[in-house]
Amino acid sequence: MSYTSDFGNLDFDIGLETLERVIIKTDKRMHVDLGVPKEITPDEKRVALTPSGAQILVEQGYCVCIEKGAGEHCNFTNEDYANAGASVVTSAEEVFKRSNVIVKVAPPLPAEFDYLQRNQVLVSALHLGMVKNDFIETLLKKAITGLAFEFIETRDGEFPIVRSLSEISGTLAIHIAAKYLETGNGGRGILLGGIAGVPPANVVIIGAGTVGQYAAQAALGLGAHVMVIDKELNRLRKFQTLFNRQISTATANDHYIARAARTADVMIGALSPRAKMMKPLVSEEVVMGMRKGSVIIDVSIDQTACFETSQRTSHSEPTFVKHGVTHYCVPNIPSAVARTASYALTNALIPFLTKLGEYASISDALWKSTSLRNGTYAYKGYLTKKVLSDLSGLAYREVQMLLATDL
């Protein structure tokens, strides 16, 4: 409701809408000094920003600072970045000191905590399954604004960064499975697609999301028989339409999963990052019923294990055998193709990084940008996602309330 009064020609407009606040239009833009340190997480070969991505940001007025050697595993040289207009510095500490926005692939490790500057913006993956309290407490103590790849969601419900990396993970999962089915790698000695007169391998994919879609596409392309299992019938209907009924589908319950596992040569855990799993979907008993030499690829391991027998592995030691089944449980699968994955990550990130420079401040950006606000998990010394509060035991507040009250 609105009241107008003639007090010195002043109009009073009283708004009662939830979270309403006066927004003063301004042409002021936040100056962004964007820093890209070299990744120190074991087996992480990607870089968060390619030289072409750096050039785009520099042309838009950003100052881009990158640590020497950050792109070496992707075959991006220091000269490539310098030619793109970025400043190449010799240490991670200098990158952090010179930047108000830090962009990483993996979240910072303890060795990097001291480098974080108060009120910085940190954009990176979060890896919910590996979050430690000391990391969260450091962010809150330094009032870091944390934006996670896993949470950046557009108005239409898409997770563009997760989707981009999931496409790679799904495709690679089939390449990896084919490799470990080989006799020399302890597999059943099966060619994934078979040949004339010899049937193909049976591939069971648990999860009808982006990883599942690209895994199914790659498996079908090689000639394998594919079954997709999911809890949501609508997702399965979409898959049947997408693949012109070339795949089999089943509802994700204990009966169908156990039945599929008995004849599977490959099982792929491709649960959605949004799936709230209280326990692994596939029990150890079911894994014990699989054929010797079969292969499990647990793509979901960086968020939550899909198989009860899963344990995190690494690119340097990617597999272990349990109950005669080869398990591949590497969290950062896309790092195996670091150059492609870095391009994909940069392409997905650039629209959100450029958004930051369109606003007067980080609070203004979060208030006006739905996707950036959705991606926020830490702000002004508070957690803003309940899932992190549940994991850490620390209190949280809704980011909308923090922004509205301008804490």
Automatic annotation (TrEMBL):
Keywords linked to the UniProt accession: NAD, Oxidoreductase
One biological process term in Gene Ontology: L-alanine catabolic process
Pfam families linked to this entry: AlaDh_PNT_C, AlaDh_PNT_N
Record flagged with keyword Iron: no
EC number: 1.4.1.1
Annotated ranges, domain Alanine dehydrogenase/pyridine nucleotide transhydrogenase N-terminal: 35-169
InterPro entries (alphabetical): Ala_DH, Ala_DH/PNT_CS2, AlaDH/PNT_N, AlaDH/PNT_NAD(H)-bd, NAD(P)-bd_dom_sf
GO MF annotations, alphabetized: alanine dehydrogenase activity
GO cellular component: plasma membrane
SUPFAM superfamilies given in the database record: Formate/glycerate dehydrogenase catalytic domain-like, NAD(P)-binding Rossmann-fold domains
Alanine dehydrogenase/pyridine nucleotide transhydrogenase NAD(H)-binding domain segment(s): 181-329
CDD domains from the UniProt entry: L-AlaDH (cd05305)
Enzyme class, first EC level, given as a word: oxidoreductase
UniProt similarity note: Belongs to the AlaDH/PNT family.
Name of this chain's protein: alanine dehydrogenase
